[in-house]
Specification:
Endospore coat-associated protein YheD, YheC/D, six-stranded antiparallel beta sheet, alpha+beta, about 270 residues, D-amino Acid Aminotransferase, Chain A, domain 1, seven-stranded mixed beta sheet, 6 helices
Length: about 270
Amino acid sequence: MANTRNSVASKLLKARMLLGHPELAKHVPVTRSYTPSQLHDMLKRYGMVYVKPDVGSQGIGVMRVEKQGSTYRYQSGMKQHTFSSFQDMVRSLTSRIGAERYLIQKGIHLLRYQKRPFDFRVMIQKSPARQWEATGTAARLAHPNKAVTNGSQGGTIYAAKDLLKPFAGDQKTAALLYRLNRLARLTAARIGRTYPAMNELGLDVGIDRHLKPWILEVNTRPDPCPFTKLDNKDAIRKIVAYAKAYGRRYPLVCNKSKKAPCCGRK
């Protein structure tokens, strides 16, 4: 019997679905269930990871955790916490996490603008003809004092090409944006096979210093707010129209994210 769910909450479940696909697996950071021993192993291997709730949105509860020499630190919101031992840090993390299910994701060193990391929200939806179509890509620049890029956490929204071009040039930027759309289509096809009632996905995709894209998260109830902040309104018009065709209405109350300064990068 076909699965009639049109949303999937567990980030770990979605990551495992993508890791089961040969091409997508190359673009998904290593993701594990949170335990202190897994955290120890992944910090030893990667130096920097993200610890995040398995179920949640808007960057709430996401922490950047690092090991530098014999020092451990994590950032939650705008606060940095530093420890001289792994055990002390784990005690602090445990008091924050409580009984909630968390996961650990290998940290990706994202491209930066004004010393702030940025990533991309790629929207893909079922068209009125019921075909998956990438309907928009927006860049999200992190709040100056935060480790997450979400607009709901005070991030600034830019046209994707404005932040990519200085790193990739015109031609490579166009090729990269095409590649992001391809990853979105593969992701939608992969998840849509298990959940055929799914109508929309929002992919959070980071690009590292080697210009490799990484799928950081897949949202099955994406908020199109970032697209309201773009000067070009084509994407938000299409997103709203497609959603209307499959019965979803967005509130579009988008007060927390910021609009980029006029005319692109400043």
